[in-house]
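[Solved] Which block belongs to which protein?

Original post:
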Amino acid sequence: MSYSSTNKKSSTFPDPLAPASEKLDKSYGLKYAKAIEANWGKIDDESGTYQKRRREFERNRDYANGTQDTTIYKQILNSLDPNNGDGTLLNLDWAPVPIIPKFVKIVVNKILSSDPYPNLQAIDPISSSEKDAKKRKLQMQVRNKDMYAQMKQSGIQMSTDASEIPDTLEEAEIFLETNVKTDAEVAAQIATNMTLSWNDFNDSTFRRCVNDLVTLGMSVVKRENDPNYGITTNYVDPCDFVHSYTEDPNFKDLVYAGHVKTITIEELKRTSGDDFTEEEFEKIAKSVAGKFNNDSSVFGRKYHDDKRDRMKYGYDEYRIQVLDFEFLSVDCMYFEDKENRFGNTNFFYKGEEYSEPKSSVYERKAHKMENATVYGGKYIVGTDYIYGYGMKTNIPKNIHDLSKARLSYSIAATNMRRMMPKSIVGSITGFADQLQLTHLKIQQAVAKAKPDGLIVDIEGLDNVQLGRGGELQPLEIQDIYEQTGVFYYRSKNPEGGFQNPPVRPLDNTIRNINELVALYNHYLRMIRDATGINEAMDGTTPKSEDLVGVREQAIAGGNNAIYDVTHASMMLFKRVVEDIVKCLQILPPESAIYKAYENAVGATNMGVLSSFSEIPMYNFGVMVRKQMDDKDRAYLEQNIQVALSQREIDIEDAVAIRQLRDVDQAERLLIVRRKKRIKQQMEQAQANSQAQAQANIQTAQAAAQVKAQEIQLKGQIDMRMLEMKAQFEAQRMQMEHEMRREVEMIRAQATLGFRTEDQEFKEKLEVLKEDRKDDRLDKQASKQSKLISQRKGQRGELEESESTNVNDLLQ
């Protein structure tokens, strides 16, 4: 049900020391909301702080978008129109010159290009001891890296891969800040990055916030613990934001805060649930009829929606203003130490109010604890209705200081002065107006510039004769001149004297154009001086003659000028991450959101998130890191290329260095890897030198051995030659001896042989002779016997052969 306040014009805040039971009542919340409304002024109150700051913010946004109101320029230039003085008849382009949007984009894009990211570190004693143990373990692994490698080569299975261990302690120190983390730190880091990614924070919310810091000097983000969507980070328009008085640009001392939302009554019915009846919705609609562009003529319409089986009213589309507010309060809780009959002491919770008993058998001691809590709700502006009010649950708190709490708004501003932040755009709007006026005056000068003309002396053109064609009038002669360029005139006047050409050209000139252009550049330079964004920073007019150091100094000067915006944006990012981490610490393990965080990481990292339940036991410190800017990246890349060209690092080293986000870590890693590579090169050179010396020694030894072998072989050859020569000589002498012996023997044999043969010949001759003689005698005897026989007639005549033989025998 709704709650209606009897004190409609209350402007004082309710008692902050009231008991919690009273604070939980809707009347307390409604009184607080009306006090906020009275403090800031009603929505339609033009003199209130709310509308005053809203007008300033909207004006800055118009200038930042280049769409500011041009009425002021028309009023200043109204004297140019003599008819009605409003400047509407002037032939001018009143569109604003988009100079300020350029400077806004430069600053916003420069901040966003750094791509900030969170780095969580547990700063409690337990985490410090765990990280110290891990650091000592890493140092031990570095010292025993060679042993791990040898064990791996031997086939021993190791839990630690030797290739992933740094080579030196100096190299290990570089990664200790990011790599040496407890399991709870890793789980919190992953969950935080997932939350930012789910909310599209960097690409959407943070971009709008940085743009607000440049344009309005203030940015707001609201964190909510939604049971359906988890931890959300929502953008809040600073124009709609209200808060307690503060001069702190970080808004750390806020007591209350809220923002105004425009919703329809249809949306109110959906979000308020059963808090209001239809009669109360009708009263709310009647209070805004004719306001906020609500059509009063549809107020009484209604019909039945058959699809949803409910009544639809014409005022359901009416827009209303709702103040979503919250405030800090302190609730007291009492605890009691009580001794029992056994002598033991027990600790009991006694609630918000406590009075020590006057007579007690056992000893009692009361303890008071002041616990900071947050109350909030939604107030329908301009009415007496409030809904969704109560104590906020799931309030992020530091586990080591449960008594403190803070609002769900993360706010940052460049500076604060009397509740009004000052922005870069707000400081240059005056110069932008003057620049626009100068631009309009340039247009006016160009519009009033006369075309090329002629100076015509009518008297000199009078009665110009053209022979049989008669005479021409001066205007006719001018037309001939304009069309043909031929000009006829009399060189003498009627008195007989010579005269100048009666027609002379009149050149075109634009009055004061150079002075106006110089004035335009002056106001543009004033904008640069006020913002600190010079030509070197935006890169619009780079000068080749400028030295590198001069440009770097100019860029550094621009960075200093926008440092307050950069610092405020990083503080806002840090506050958002701190809220996310504290919300993660209070997630109930049985909740669906808790399970969603575990499931979103995947099976690979489930082992890491096994310590997710331990996150509440740690106290995390948030540091916002930034990507290195273009200058640092270019300088680092230059050093990398120099080291690569001199072979002081490998390609793998260059890839590892480029993957680091922090320029300091990257430079330190470059130095370490370079030293490591140089040491390896020196060791390699020394090894090569030793190997070369050993090779030279071995070569010399081999050469000496070869030479000795050659000498030995030569000696052996010479000895062999001598032996062979001696053997040959001996063989030759023996052969000669044998030959001489044989010759002598032949000679002796020959001498003896001749004698023997002669004797034998003679003996044979004698024998032959005797044999022949015997043969002849035998044949002769035979022949004689035959002859005797023939003679005796015992045989015939002898044959010729036989007679021949006989004759031979006779001879």
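(Second protein starts here: sequence line, then its structure tokens.)
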Amino acid sequence: MMKIHSFNVAPNLPDNLKPLAELSQNMWFTWNWDAITMLVSMDEDLWHRSHRNPKWVLGAIPPARLEELSKDPAFTGQLNGIKQKFDSYISRETWYDKNHDKNEKDFMVAYFSMEFGIGEGLPMYSGGLGMLSGDHLKSSSDLGLPLVGVGLYYQKGYIQQVLNREGWQMERYPENDWANMPVVRAKDKNGQPLNVPVPLGNETILAGVWQVPVGRTSLYLLDTNLPENAPHHRLITEQLYGGDREVRIKQEIVLGLGGVKALEALGLKPTVYHINEGHAAFLLFERIRKVMKEKNLSFHEAREAVWASSVFTTHTPVIAGNEHFDPELVRRFMEPYTRELGISWEEFIAIGKEEQKSATFCMTVVALRLAAYLNGVAKLHGDVSREMWRKVFPQIPFSEMPITSVTNGVHTSSWISHEHHSLYLKYLKKPDSGCCPEIPDVCDWNKIYTIPDEEMWNTHQIRKGKMINLVRQRMRRQLARLGADSTVLDETEDLLKPEVLTIGFARRFATYKRATLLFRDLDRLDALINNPQQPIQLVFAGKAHQADTAGKELVKTIARLMQDKRFKNKLVFIEDYNMNVARYIVQGVDVWLNNPIRPLEASGTSGMKASINGVLNLSVLDGWWPEAYSPEVGWAIGGSEHYNDEAERDNVESEAICNLLGKEVAPLYYSKDQHGIPRGWVEKMKNSVSRITPQFSTHRMVREYFDRLYTPAHRYGKKLLSDGFAAELAKWRYRVGENWSRVRITDDSPRHHHETCTGQKMHFKARVMLGNLRPEEVQVQVCVGQLHSKGELENDTKVILNPTGRDGEAYIYEGDMTMARSGRQDFAFRVIPNHADLPHPFMPPYIKWEE
């Protein structure tokens, strides 16, 4: 076999074009329209062929064209202006500069995710999780938040989708050309390529580290495709969500253990670790191991500090959708590692089991047990998550489950069309934007109604025309690939009409998203689409996972309906959905359709992207939509009804969509004045933009993470790592555990059954047995509310009782509550642990109710 040697060739840029090298290397360009316009002007064909990758364009553009550009004063002037804009962006004062505690100079967040959607030229994403991760990094950069991302460096990224003549999804796996992508090899202190060791069972493999600059921040990617690794280990990072269960656990070990080691090797010292979905949960064990070594602590002592400084975001509202592994597979790759943790294999595996009898090791359960700050990604999803994971927190009332919610958002500058961007800045820009010059912060959204209806409508029509052009071009290429003749190709010019109400549906083709719900009654759909006064047309796009046969059947159903003469040229399915296609569709359709099975959509962000661009949402009340919906901004499909079976649910909600389209949506759209402007529609557009855009942005989301989760995690973590606090807390928790079986509480109130009046005080008294615990180590409460049918108190008020003396071995606790409500009141006494250094008291979930 021949021996291969490699070297890289860099583009030879003229001196006055040198800034292109830096601009092409930083993903900042992906949300800066001026930069994109300049890059497109260099060679539009190369720009599209590169999948919007400027580094590839610079490597492929002919030297003669570079020479020509270097002599073009308009181009060099534009380049210098953009470079100045970039330099100003990097150096200016930020929101974080103005708002953080100046004494917390070491604050830093490490954000771990399996996928990141930053730009099409960096194909490391498959769906909403990746889009969220990419937008999180971008807003962190805009706001100046000290945050770094950590992911994997995939040789093949995610699948490319192609449809055969029958409409069946086929997959391609093109290899990423990393030499021409905006990544650089991270170096060690000696200037050599940085590799970190990752324990994998009885072996140790190496992971290379790559850096992707994203504005002010960076994303670090781990790569096992190194010559030093055995061939089967080189394939670990070959493909996003590819391979069997063994490959998946290896990927997650590399991401979790290797990611922590990589940050340490880079000299970065995060004070908060944020785990975005359970894939990276192994990092918690590596953090514990690291703290044990550095602070000379036991596993249980180090665990306290790691727990207090870790944030975990769950995204999946279905138990089966969370990452589960066979315990024997986990043992094969992790048992040797547990020896460094100083715990038994049984202790290790128990951390990932929902219950002692559970058959699988769940990564989500690991994160729920080892991270103190837990959140879902919408208010409804927070409720669903608390219900899902009750077994991890037994005996804790639903309302007190330590899983909160931070509703997702989108990075507005990445998803807004440049036409809408210009329109909003023209009419809505605040006089003094201060440290927040990006949309949405730069705009006064209350001024949306100063935009003339004609301008709002015409801006939308421009984007609609561009989307239709994209659809026609892609369908022409799609048909040409399948061997269509020129007459068929020419018919693509008749696809979609700009004056027709256009409904968009584009997302992962997971079955719960019900892509074909609208097609349950084809005769009804025919009547809607071909209504001569109020016609409708449909644009669909999306990929099914390569192993999801049911999802592929949904793709096939819609693709084949394109050939039905009733829907020809009025229904399109665009193959190979990606960020660019998504951008055109959310900017160009009139209505964004979303009809998942409630409550299986954790959040959903595509509708947020659509609303930025004046597109109205027609959605099931799931994910983020219950927080945003009102009749003034869009339409709701159904409510929170319960159905007898799936068929009834689908029939009812499919009919609801058709009713809304035929009786409300289309009539409003086609109700135009003598100038051709649908005034009522435009008013709804303005309502939607002004109410949704500022609230459902990642700027708001990242600030919320900073205030509610990152800052307390940073402070608790710092405290527990100093002056022996972690050891003291671990000893206290051990004492609580040893004594908890001896804790008892009984009601000793003097007026159990006496009636009282509103405004009067009710006196509560309890006798509490504490074993060897001291009174200050617990909190005694009485919960007053109404008993729910499920056996829990609703709307309860918690009254803290104070120790007032002893009666033999029992402590006496007493307290008063002024009664504000009339009617029956139910109450229950309980004891919970109490410690000043706890983010929350429910891990382990010690709680003792009166029996």
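Accepted answer:
You had them paired correctly. Confirming on the second one: The domain at 453-694 is CATH 3.40.50.2000 (Rossmann fold).
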